[in-house]
UniProtKB/TrEMBL annotation:
<keyword id="KW-1133">Transmembrane helix</keyword>
<keyword id="KW-0472">Membrane</keyword>
<feature type="compositionally biased region" description="Basic and acidic residues">
    <location>
        <begin position="194"/>
        <end position="208"/>
    </location>
</feature>
<feature type="transmembrane region" description="Helical">
    <location>
        <begin position="286"/>
        <end position="310"/>
    </location>
</feature>
<feature type="transmembrane region" description="Helical">
    <location>
        <begin position="144"/>
        <end position="167"/>
    </location>
</feature>
<feature type="transmembrane region" description="Helical">
    <location>
        <begin position="322"/>
        <end position="343"/>
    </location>
</feature>
<feature type="transmembrane region" description="Helical">
    <location>
        <begin position="55"/>
        <end position="77"/>
    </location>
</feature>
<keyword id="KW-0812">Transmembrane</keyword>
<feature type="transmembrane region" description="Helical">
    <location>
        <begin position="381"/>
        <end position="402"/>
    </location>
</feature>
<feature type="transmembrane region" description="Helical">
    <location>
        <begin position="108"/>
        <end position="132"/>
    </location>
</feature>
<protein>
    <submittedName>
        <fullName>Major facilitator superfamily mfs_1</fullName>
    </submittedName>
</protein>
<feature type="transmembrane region" description="Helical">
    <location>
        <begin position="408"/>
        <end position="429"/>
    </location>
</feature>
<feature type="transmembrane region" description="Helical">
    <location>
        <begin position="245"/>
        <end position="265"/>
    </location>
</feature>
<feature type="region of interest" description="Disordered">
    <location>
        <begin position="189"/>
        <end position="215"/>
    </location>
</feature>
<feature type="transmembrane region" description="Helical">
    <location>
        <begin position="84"/>
        <end position="102"/>
    </location>
</feature>
<feature type="transmembrane region" description="Helical">
    <location>
        <begin position="15"/>
        <end position="35"/>
    </location>
</feature>
Length: 456
């Protein structure tokens, strides 16, 4: 075990429940990547000019679901939230399978499914990482989140390799495979040892993501969402606006989703022009996902923890806007499907291998109302707000007759502002980690009494 810990750059205590978290990550992301190419294909089948409506549909559905999600969080224990959420998602996927069987080829159904996939991908991912955040400190997150993210990439790779096979045999019924895989992510785990995993955060050990006992939390981390939030999004927005750190991370989410949306539409336009059939487009998306997954997995396993230790939160977060800027410059100089695929692929590699596990680590050991109320609101409603602005930008750009090169110059300008935001957000996160470590030191000096964790 010592050799494994050395190779992965983690502590031996981190290895206790790490395999279970990795398996849960594999199933969660793998499930989505069975759906994502199908969602893109069905969205494009309506015509490129109608694809922005999918983003609008996402926004409407997210607004409707957020109060329901918040109500569920208030009435469920922390360890029950993830299984409850995933099983609802699976049940609705099976319902879509029935609709595909009886109403194949109906454009309204294609639209509804594309909206559903784009929405549930946000809720399942934010629920997964919220559960992780309830188990770890920022120091632990720096060590283990890269390994867990690598498990997610393995899930993406397996899905990317097998999805074309399943799709060729099952067609739209591939949604059943996804529903089964989501169920695998929430299977009950063995009861953890009394003195080890039961109190993962306090003992510095890693706990399972799926059903496990409630970890010990600080005074401020107790469930305060009932008094501060209720079931409305207003309380969540109040939390997001309450500190410089949360305001910075909200701006970060808006900027990244606007830019990702812009790149998505550029890619969609290039793919629609290059390929005529749904099978060709599906194969292209699946192959691109596979290449991205291989590169991402290598970086996550071999480089993430080292890079985060060397560069800190601020340096690692800035890597994604730099990659975005490089890809946009190449696309501007040499336009075409290959350069757009490089832009999209490079950004995804840096995002999933470095930026995303780093950003998710920012939430570690924050209060429950932040990770289970404000964070889902940020990852869904705020996220889709940025996407909606991106969709509006693309629609307006097409109507105004702006060329792809002009649109990409605009994205490049926004990416510069995003880089500045990433730097500031990382600095705030480093300050929070230092405050956590100081509180832990003081608590140890005072006899191990619990102390409240400060919000930035």
């Amino acid at each position: 075990m010592g050799l494994v810990a050395t190779v992965l750059n983690v502590e031996e205590s981190d290895l206790a429940g790490l395999p279970l978290s990795v398996l849960a990550a594999m199933a969660t992301i793998g499930s989505y990547y069975y759906l994502q190419p199908l969602g893109d294909v069905l969205a494009l089948s309506m015509g490129i000019e109608w694809t922005p409506l999918v983003t609008v549909g996402n926004m409407v559905l997210i607004v409707a679901l957020n109060p329901l999600y918040a109500a569920a969080v208030l009435n469920l224990s922390t360890e029950a939230i993830l299984p409850f959420m995933y099983r609802i998602v699976s049940a609705l996927l099976l319902l879509f399978a029935c609709f595909f069987y009886f109403f194949s080829g109906v454009k309204t159904l294609s639209f509804c499914f594309s909206v559903y996939v784009g929405t549930i991908s946000l809720f399942t991912t934010t629920t997964f990482y919220a559960r992780l955040a309830s188990l770890h400190t920022k120091a632990e997150a720096k060590r283990v989140y890269g390994i867990i993210a690598a498990g997610a990439q393995i899930g993406q790779l397996l899905a990317s390799v097998t999805a074309p096979i399943f799709f060729s045999q099952m067609g739209n019924m591939i949604v059943c495979v996804s529903a089964l895989t989501y169920e695998l992510a929430v299977q009950p785990t063995p009861e953890p040892a009394e003195n080890g995993k039961r109190d993962g955060k306090r003992n510095g050990k890693h706990c399972e993501v799926t059903p496990s006992p409630e970890p010990a939390t600080s005074a401020i981390a107790e469930n305060t969402c009932a008094s501060r939030c209720g079931t409305s999004a207003v309380g969540g927005f109040a939390i997001l606006a309450s500190t410089p750190f949360l305001r910075a991370i909200t701006l970060h989410t808006l900027l990244i989703t606007f830019l990702v949306s812009g790149v998505w539409y550029e890619r969609a336009a290039a793919v629609a022009a290059a390929f005529r059939t749904s099978d060709e487009r599906y194969e292209f998306f699946a192959h691109l996902n596979f290449v991205v997954g291989v590169c991402t997995l290598l970086v996550q396993l071999l480089c993430f923890s080292h890079i985060l230790r060397w560069l800190g939160f601020h340096g690692t977060l800035v890597a994604e806007p730099l990659a975005m800027g490089l890809g946009l410059c190449i696309s501007i100089v040499s336009p075409g499907l290959l350069s757009i695929a490089f832009l999209d692929g490079l950004r995804k590699v840096v995002h999933y291998s470095l930026a995303k596990p780093t950003k998710e680590g920012l939430y570690a050991s924050l209060p429950k109302d932040v990770v289970f109320i404000a964070k889902p609101l940020l990852d869904t409603l705020v996220y889709r707000t940025g996407s909606l602005v991106g969709a509006a930008y693309f629609t307006a750009a097409i109507q105004w007759g702006l060329t792809a090169k002009v649109r990409q110059y605009m994205l490049l300008a926004v990416s510069i502002g995003w880089a500045a935001n990433c730097w500031w957000l990382g600095i705030l996160a480093e300050r929070h980690q230092q405050a956590q470590e100081e509180l832990a030191r003081l608590s140890s000096v005072q006899g191990g009494q619990d102390s409240a964790q400060p919000l930035l």
